[in-house]
Structure of Lipoprotein:
Amino acid sequence: MKFIKITYLVVILTAIFLSSCTSTKTEPTQPSSDGTCYLTVMARGEYDELSVSSFSTSLISKFHKRVIEPPASGISSTEECVYEVRVDSREFTTLVTISSKDLNTSGDSKATGNEGLQESILRALYNGLSNKREEICQSYGEKLVECGVDHKKLEKKLKDVLDVEEKQLQEEIRLLEQDVNTIRQDRLRIEKERNAEIQRQKDEATKKREEELRILREKEEKRKQEELARKRAELKKKQEEKERIR
């Protein structure tokens, strides 16, 4: 009877233990994803990263996928949804490159300032998102030749760009001419000073030689005068001896 009670107690305790283990078991949580995509920018030339980020965030979010700036703490290296925008401005051309897992495209523009930046981003999206071209043209058709811009407007735009480039070149030429003129004046001044220094050195050398020659002639004159006086004295002595002989 005692053995049965002990066995019954063991069974009850075992059941309680198993029940406790089952109730405390938890399922592993899955990483949550809210679909957030981040935008990173890199700018060279006339554009700053703030302007690039502003235009890129607006246009990419409008025509492709919502993007936001990375948090101050940065983003993880394992983050999958990152759009990298690179802007390079040189020689009257703005080039924009957009890179991500689902979009790799680029676009350029001959315009300058914010207009050139916006046009480059729009052209990159137009080139990379074939299913969004109609929507892009409806919103910004006047910005892109690909959308069938009015030829007169296009010619005026190109003329404006050429005018800007011409003015920039004229200004560069003016500055170069100014530099050349300044350098020429400096060169002529240096040559004049060098020639004057050479002449001064020549004058000093000539004066020195003339002074040395004067001193030599003075010494020679004195020596000759002494010799003349001696010869005269000898002559006088000879004449006196001759008179005595007579």
User: Anything to note?
Assistant: The radius of gyration is 50 Å. The domain at 37-147 is CATH 3.30.160 (Double Stranded RNA Binding Domain). The first helix runs from residue 2 to 24.
